[in-house]
Design goal:
It is a single chain. The protein is α+β, with helices and mostly antiparallel strands and 163 residues long. It has four helices and nine strands; from the N terminus they run βααβββαβαββββ. Strands 1, 2, 3, 4, 5, 6, 7, 8 and 9 form a nine-stranded mixed beta sheet that branches. It is globular, with a radius of gyration of 15 Å. The chain starts with a strand and ends with a strand.
Length: 163
């Protein structure tokens, strides 16, 4: 039995261990990590998946902006390798996206596998409109509108929210 629950401060050690196991230390050089440098994940959008043996999944959303528009960045999303294929990632995304809608966010972006993320409403973003802080495969740049039309006209530099 897997329980999806809000992330707690005491979960961070287990989340980091799960990220290390699944993605390795090279994850910090990826463009998705650079997009959220200097940000703090939004606590009310951070969830974990827990089994009787401990944490088996985690999702976080970070506040970023695209051009001047506030946007969310989904990630990291991680599921223990032994538990992949059990819909845990889907359940974590559904929980986080539903909550993001409720609290008034309008759009989410990520770099990821289009068929996997399409299941929760992500679609490829038009090529050449977003400028990211590092290399990326344009076919993997995806967006999800949490409000009608939220992806229309989304363009510009992607990075942490300006203070």
């Amino acid at each position: 039995m897997i329980e999806i629950r809000p992330e707690q401060p005491g979960d961070m050690v287990a989340i980091e261990a799960l990220l290390d196991l699944t993605f390795g230390p090279g994850r910090f050089t990826k463009t998705a990590y650079r997009m959220r440098e200097g940000t703090t994940p939004i606590s009310e959008l951070s969830y974990v998946a827990e089994s009787k043996d401990g944490l088996v999944g985690s999702i976080q959303f970070s506040p970023i902006q695209v051009g001047t528009r506030p946007t969310l960045l989904l990630g990291p999303l991680v599921v223990h390798p032994d538990c992949q294929g059990q819909m845990i990632g889907f359940d974590l995304m559904t929980q986080g996206l539903d909550r993001a809608r409720v609290i008034g966010h309008s759009a989410v972006i990520l770099i990821g596998d289009a068929p996997y993320y399409a299941r929760v409403g992500f679609e490829p973003l038009p090529r050449g409109r977003l400028i990211l802080p590092g290399p990326f495969d344009a076919a993997r740049l995806l967006g999800c509108a949490l409000k009608e039309g939220a992806l229309e006209g989304l363009e510009g530099w992607v990075g942490p929210v300006s203070k």
